[in-house]
Amino acid sequence: MRVSVDSERCVGAALCTMTAPGVFEQDDEGVSGVIPGSEDGAGDPKVHEAVRVCPVQAISVAVE
Ligand code: SF4
Description:
Blueprint: E1 2-5, H1 15-19, E2 24-26, E3 32-34, H2 47-53, E4 59-62
Antiparallel strand pairs: 1-4, 2-3
């Protein structure tokens, strides 16, 4: 899988970082991104939950 965050769409709600803190991080302005090295989802089943809870559908998961 390949996890990505659309930083243009992200509104900094922090739900992804609370749900899967091993995969997502936020910068100083609250914009979320994938932690370098965790683009494959880091084996965390909560990645899909993060996709679901993001209020602006900024998180994408592509199956490779
Ligand atoms: S849940 Fe969505 S809007 Fe909130 S920080 Fe994560 S990607 Fe951004």
